[in-house]
Design brief:
The chain is α+β, with helices and mostly antiparallel strands and 862 residues long. 40% of the residues lie in helices and 21% in strands. The structure holds phenylalanine (PHE) and zinc ion. This is Aminopeptidase N.
Length: 862
């Protein structure tokens, strides 16, 4: 006999090419919820209209639902059957009908956090991508747009606040219960449906739109949290004004609500008129949030707000088009944040994130184009590629078109597709027509995965110099051969001899596999400033002497290029050292000193520029990653810079920190620089550093300084370390977001015993697998700690695999996100690679594994 329960389900692969419009549309939906934390009854009435010429059964997806009864036009209907978990209703030759189904769901036992679930006694929904089918039977695909009427009834004391999309049109009381009726006038796909019921308090404000309409704004949180919503409210108002000014997009309802929940799989969700947020992207005050947290709140509030146009008014035809809304919306939020703060610093941060999260993905077994061709579980495709590389693709089009023509293109896109479910192709076509440009070759960015590499060489003909560029896109799974891409490459060239000769900022459009760009006349080899502003998301291979990089780090007129030059100098030195060669430490020290001299004028930029590249990024440059050598050499260089510039670092720390309430770029930069200075000083190993760090920790007037000092202490083994961790824990044990930091700094620690420390922290009474933020703060931080995760005995791999196995039955989405670090086995030595594969195999051998984890683990082994 076969035991079916332990036979892994054969994964079903969905292909982009198989798209077909649905035979039925659903112009109107009425939902009635009888709310309960343990049990909620849902009655759904779908007004369906047939679009196919011939009769076709109505396929309604379900996930974990049972249908007791189906009614059609008010009468019990027997022509239905279950197909697995889906409901198929045969409507004969009807062309329209009202189909009613009742379901009962159990929010309190919904640990996946998809569909309707309970978080701290409050009920909330998460429907993207396919969570609506866990609430009621529905086609649950984004090209089915409906007007929703949502009625909900619940106990007044448990659920004093009842919210859904759109406007509340009626409410009333009935004994201990009360009810509310919400109507959303805008047709929307099911993934944008939302409902919240609970005991919440609101921060209210308003915004007057460009046409003079007053919009009521509400940020809903648990009692006691309302004082920490001010930054989010301001970010919302700023975003609304920015989208009007920059894209001409006005908000379209009289009400905009945001609800913060502590148990949430992602950052936030753009449900129409009712955004639902992870608390970490709403709650912030100087005592509990760092500057990075404040910027995160601003960026994510903007991101979700911008989705109202790029995502909601114009949505996606199918999930293969996900980057249509996500790439574009990330691009929009990046530019918003740049406008709110320092554009060069924002660009540096965005590129650093792209290189840390997306480049490795593009170089590994999970590589996929920004518009994938197939998937098994769509939740696995909310990736850095879809989001961040997707944003880079939009940015390149904006660069190629220039601001006016880009705006014409986006106007055309929004106007032409308003109210529709569109495709990436629709977007590119709007860019072509609005921008009057041919993007035929550019479309390859949507088709080809992998980070293109540009190999550069300078050629000389007398005093005439030119640049030879060769382009290659590496093979990725399923795509062995690639064609060259079209891309904008910004460059400039400078004479280093003081003659002043330059090639000013030039935009070159690359398209061929090999291309020659004339640079002009220079008496000797010019310093080349290339991919300025990171105009194309590529890797540039270009041999340059340390002196040339140092010169650019000091003189380039593009701040991003200055940053790049110094980073490249550091990277060359570190890669050489980690590979057993000697790097030019003195050149790095001199360049850091030179950059540091500009700290007073622009501390934010300087803090970014003098930071050493991460261990992971150093590893990405090596043929085989050697985590121990990288850690050793990076710490050694940090110490050398620390010692050589000790008085400079001490001087940075001797000044007063900017007040924590000052959130200007300059103040944030000042604090960031102080954190960097403290880290360099700590690397020197001088005896007074723990006391100095402890002093900063205890005297800090805000979380940025406090966390930076705590993180520095956490790397060492001083008495101050234990003391500070204890104080921090006692002070913030009741604040989950701050307690996350306590777990995180310990998982980030450079101490050799971090694997054991993480193992012990997983047993801490405050650790729980039920809260995704907590899981990420411990295990997510740990798997990003390269030398710890790759500890030679494989204990780090085992720890992550054990987590995946324990978490998968509860929350497959979050479990699957932990797998990619294990999939990078090809990049490491044989012994590590074998252990990583063995853990992936052990995961795959678990009975009853989710589709999410099965897809990621099996693809990671290939
Ligand atoms: N669409 C959300 C965003 O990018 C992300 C998200 C995806 C949230 C899936 C929840 C579930 O803003
Ligand atoms: Zn988004």
């Amino acid at each position: 006999m076969t035991d079916l329960s332990s036979t892994p389900a054969i994964p079903v692969t969905i292909h982009r090419g198989d798209y077909a419009p649905l035979e039925w549309q659903i112009p109107d939906i009425a939902l009635d919820f009888a709310l309960g934390v343990e049990q909620t009854k849902v009655s759904a009435a779908l007004s369906v209209v047939r679009h196919a010429a011939a009769p076709a059964p109505l396929l309604l997806r379900g996930d974990g639902l049972t249908a007791a009864e189906v009614r059609v036009d008010g009468a019990v209907w027997n022509d239905w059957r279950m197909d697995g978990s889906d409901l198929i209703v045969d409507l004969g030759d009807r062309t329209a009908a009202v189909v009613e189904v009742d379901t009962v769901i159990a929010p309190a036992s919904n640990t996946q956090l998809m569909g309707l679930y309970a978080s701290n006694n409050m009920l909330c929904t998460q429907c993207e991508a396919e969570g609506f089918r866990r609430i009621t039977f529905h086609p649950d695909r984004p090209d089915v747009l409906s007007r929703y009427k949502v009625r909900m009834t619940g106990d007044k004391a448990t659920f004093p606040i009842l919210l859904s999309n759109g406007n509340c049109v009626e409410q009333g009381e009935a004994g201990n219960d009360h009810w509310a009726l919400w109507e959303d006038p805008w047709p929307k796909p099911s993934y944008l449906f939302a409902l919240v019921a609970g005991d919440l308090v609101v921060n209210r404000d308003s915004f007057t739109t460009m046409s003079g309409r007053e919009v009521e704004l509400g940020i809903w949180v648990r009692k006691g949290d309302e004082a920490r919503t001010g930054h989010a409210m301001k970010a919302l108002q700023d975003s609304m004004a920015w989208d009007e000014r920059v894209y001409g997009r006005e908000y379209d309802l009289d009400l905009f609500n945001i609800v913060a929940v502590s148990d949430f799989n992602m950052g936030a969700m753009e449900n129409k008129g009712l955004n639902i947020f992870n608390t970490r992207y709403i709650l912030a005050d100087p005592d509990t949030a760092t500057d990075v947290d404040f910027d995160g709140v601003e960026g994510v509030v903007a991101h979700e707000y911008f989705h109202n146009w790029s995502g909601n008014r114009v949505t996606c035809r199918d999930w293969f088009q996900l980057s249509l809304k996500e790439g574009f919306t990330v691009f929009r939020d990046q530019n918003f944040s740049a406008d709110m703060g320092s554009p060069p610093v924002k660009r540096i941060e965005d590129v650093r994130l792209l290189r840390a999260a997306q480049f490795p993905e593009d170089a590994g077994p999970l590589a996929h184009p920004i518009r994938p061709d197939s998937y098994q579980e769509i939740s696995n495709f909310y990736t850095a590629t879809i989001y961040n590389k997707g944003a880079e693709i939009i940015r390149m089009m904006a660069t190629l078109l220039g601001p006016e023509r880009f705006r014409k293109g986006t106007d055309l896109y929004f106007d032409r597709h308003d109210g529709e479910a569109a495709t990436c192709e629709d977007f590119v076509r709007a860019m072509e027509e609005g921008g009057d440009i041919d993007l035929k070759q550019f479309r390859r960015w949507y088709e080809q995965a992998g980070t293109p590499r540009l190999s550069l060489t300078l050629a000389q003909d007398g005093d005439d110099w030119s640049l030879d560029i060769r382009q290659a896109v590496p093979p990725t799974p399923g795509q062995p051969d690639k064609a060259p891409m079209m891309m904008p490459l910004r460059l400039a060239a400078f004479a280093m001899d003081g003659s002043g000769a330059t090639l000013p900022d030039t935009l070159v459009t690359l398209s061929g596999a090999a291309q020659r760009v004339p640079l002009g006349r220079f008496a000797s080899r010019p310093a080349l400033s290339v991919n300025r502003g990171f105009s194309a998301p590529v890797i540039v291979d270009f041999e340059r002497a340390p002196g040339e990089l140092a010169w650019l780090a000091a003189h380039d007129d593009d701040p991003f290029a200055r940053y790049e030059a110094l980073q490249q100098l550091m990277l060359d030195t570190l890669v050489a050292a980690a590979s057993g060669d000697t790097g030019d430490t003195q050149a790095v020290i001199d360049a850091v000193a030179q950059t540091l001299a500009g700290a007073a004028a622009d501390p934010a930029f300087v803090a970014e520029a003098v930071l050493l590249p991460s261990e992971a990024f150093i590893g990405d440059q090596m043929v085989t990653v050697d985590p121990d050598a990288i850690r050793r050499e990076r710490l050694a260089l940090q110490a050398a810079i620390g010692v050589a510039l000790e008085s400079e670092w001490r001087a940075v720390l001797a000044g007063a920190a900017p007040p924590a309430t000052d959130l200007s770029s300059k103040a944030k930069g000042g604090r960031r620089l102080r954190g960097v200075a403290l880290a360099y000083l700590a690397a020197t190993g001088q005896d007074d550093v723990p006391a100095l760090a402890f002093g900063i920790f205890s005297g800090a007037d805000g979380m940025t300084e406090r966390q930076a000092a705590l993180a520095t202490l956490a790397h060492g083994d001083s008495d101050e370390r234990a003391h500070a961790l204890d104080i921090f824990y006692q002070r913030y044990r009741d604040n989950p977001l701050v307690l996350d930091k306590w777990f995180q700094v310990q998982a980030w620690s450079l101490r050799p015993d971090t694997v054991d420390a993480v193992k012990a922290l997983a047993q801490h009474p405050d650790f729980t697998l039920a809260n995704p933020n907590r899981v990420r703060s411990l295990y997510g931080a740990f798997s990003g700690n390269q030398a710890a995760f790759h500890q030679a005995d494989g204990a780090g791999y085992r720890l992550i695999a054990d987590l995946v196995i324990a978490l998968d039955p509860k929350n497959p989405q979050t479990a699957a996100k932990m797998i990619p670090p294990l999939g990078r086995w090809k990049r490491f030595d044989e012994a590590r690679g074998a252990m990583m594969r063995a853990e992936l195999e052990r995961i795959l051998a678990q009975p009853g594994l989710s589709r999410d984890v099965t897809e990621q683990a099996s693809k990671s082994l290939a």
